[in-house]
Structure prediction request, 230 residues.
Amino acid sequence: GENVEQHPSTLSVQEGDSAVIKCTYSDSASNYFPWYKQELGKGPQLIIDIRSNVGEKKDQRIAVTLNKTAKHFSLHITETQPEDSAVYFCAASRYSGAGSYQLTFGKGTKLSVIP
Amino acid sequence: GEEVAQTPKHLVRGEGQKAKLYCAPIKGHSYVFWYQQVLKNEFKFLISFQNENVFDETGMPKERFSAKCLPNSPCSLEIQATKLEDSAVYFCASSQYKGMNTEAFFGQGTRLTVV
Prediction:
């Protein structure tokens, strides 16, 4: 089955600096890669996603890049703010063979932005 | 509604008791997914529905777990004879298009504690 590895598990940055989180996936059939932000006691919130026909996508301070050949994708947050502090999850969506897709998540990165 | 609504927020059960969790998907979303998040942040896919039909149940422990999505009712996830290892946060997500190859919106989760 699909396996998604996420690094680092924890990341501390100074306010205003950039943060980069990297993920690799194993299943070359995966074609949808969302990123979720989870704050304490809350559900995951989709912040950006990318499909396999696109190499890069940007939304204000957040960008995601995808390298299909190397099977890795990354989240970039620029000009970090304290409210960016949360746990971030990458995920990959693959065809399960049962007629549906299911998300396989990485193990999360706890981002702390130090004021 | 405009958000995925999960109830209850917290649930405590003695080992061997039954637990039932509810999820109301976003209005108009025809796909519902259940995920289990254990203490180390890991997400495990359990089951997905297309309307009231099971779409993919490859993640469901068959012996004690069951789920339904009936017309005009919240979806439900039921655990018979709970065990200590069932303690986790259970998230429901819904999406508008087929499978997870599109935006999936998560609820706030139900924290199940088995004592």
The interface with chain B takes residues 31-32, 34, 36, 41-46, 49, 51, 87, 89, 91, 93, 95-96, 98-105, 107-108 of chain A (CB under 8 Å). Chain A has a mean pLDDT of 92.
